[in-house]
Specification:
Radius of gyration: 22 Å
CATH class of the largest domain: Alpha Beta
Number of helices: 8
Largest sheet: 11 strands, mixed
Distance between the termini: 38 Å
Number of strands: 15
CATH architecture of the largest domain: 2-Layer Sandwich
Number of domains: 3
Strand content: 25-35%
Shape: elongated
Length: about 290
Amino acid sequence: MKKLIVSKKYNGKKLNKFLIDNIPNLSFGLFCNTLRKKDIKVNGKRINKDINIFEGDEILVYISDDLLYNKYNLNLDIKYEDDNILVINKPINIEVTGENSLTTIVHKLYENCIYKPMPCHRLDRNTTGLIIFAKNEKALNILLEKFKKHEIEKHYLALVYGIPNVKSQKIESYLFKDNKKSRVYISDNFKKGYVKIITSYTVLETYNNNTSLLDVQIETGKTHQIRAQLAHIGYPIIGDGKYGKNEINKLFGKKFQTLCSYKIKFCFSTDSSILNYLNNFSISLDYM
């Protein structure tokens, strides 16, 4: 149990801000779990909401050191959480699903919950950025449907070699996935076994070292789509060992693709039931 007294600095501030600043290794996700279980008292009263606190308030937090210092808590970079969704900044070199994945870590942290949060979309192992987890089955079904209907925008940052002459465009190509080689191939024309893919990009910045930072959106979500399609039009992502150029990657000292899912925006055009409050809401990371 942790006992804290609110200082003048936090007068009128939110409880989560005070506790995360004053309890080492307390993440926002762990705070929410502790709050949900009513394991926090403010002036002797158990609470289950993130309330405003005031100078002199006595805060009791019933949380074990094991939870504060376990590796699962420390590895989660939670950017947003409410009763229905959890948005995590996925680090490099980890799968979203499977054994020892991001989902494994999430399930361990939320092991006392009736419903274990489930991912609503995917990122490549070495692509970083925002992943949405649904915290109940109803939210999961809604989000899967919204992704299918393209009512959730996913923006990626890609650092590419070269400076595009066209500053903003939509690219339509065809993709073939070779499961044996674990890679995809791109064609400008339809071929048997190929599926249509659509990617849009806008140049955000250009640099003197012949590189560009692109905002990328995909209308079709196929394996390695962004990486392969940008390389196909002559702008490989720096650090991409599969579709990029080794000499360029060595020049910039990058071993993994500089690709990040940096922004998610909810753009619901149809009813979204318990998630209607998210409409027009966005979550974003700083530029890499």
